[in-house]
């Protein structure tokens, strides 16, 4: 059984990250799954007339990479995502390579909670999204 880190295995400052280049398929799949067909994401002719001059990825697509870190890396499988604040700082264009990262800011052992900084940057080091998450890491597996 795959099991993430428990509260006693995590300390302030622990970090994890994942990177992904955003493809046109990623944008269209996200649009199809969520029903968010905003032309800023899926219609190049429309998007050329916007402030960004091209299609941009959904902001929540970027935020989804934070969820992947929390659920698969830190703390990992068994983690329950409780709360997230987000600020979208810059657009994500098709072809951008994003690196999402989390860093443990606080360990609240008595409540089995972690407070984490969440950040997503593009290949130029521009922060495209940031915020904080509150999660409950998995409990120790029963033996």
Structural class: alpha+beta
Query: For the CA atoms, what is the radius of gyration?
Result: 17 Å
Terminal CA distance reads: 12 Å
Q: Count the helices. How many?
A: 4
* Strand element count: 5
Major pleated sheet: 5 strands, antiparallel
Order of helices and strands: EHHHHEEEE
> What is the CATH topology assignment?
Thiol Ester Dehydrase, Chain A
Principal-axis shape equals elongated
Low-confidence stretches: none
CATH class: Alpha Beta
Architecture, CATH level 2?
A: Roll
Query: Could you report the average pLDDT, rounded to the nearest whole number?
Result: 95
Q: In total, how many domains does the architecture comprise?
A: 1
Please state roughly what percent of the residues sit in beta strands, choosing from under 5%, 5-15%, 15-25%, 25-35%, 35-45% or over 45%. 25-35%
| Strand adjacency order, main sheet | 1-3-4-5-2
Structure in words:
With 143 residues, the protein is α+β, with helices and mostly antiparallel strands. The protein has a single domain, classed as Roll (Thiol Ester Dehydrase, Chain A). 23% of the residues lie in helices and 33% in strands. It is built from 4 helices and 5 strands, in the order βααααββββ. It has helices at 24-34, 39-42, 44-47, 59-72; strands at 15-21, 80-88, 97-108, 113-121, 127-136. The chain has a 5-stranded antiparallel β-sheet with strand order 1-3-4-5-2, covered by helices on one side. The protein starts with 14 loop residues before the first strand and ends in a 7-residue tail after the last strand. The model has no long low-confidence stretch (mean pLDDT 95).
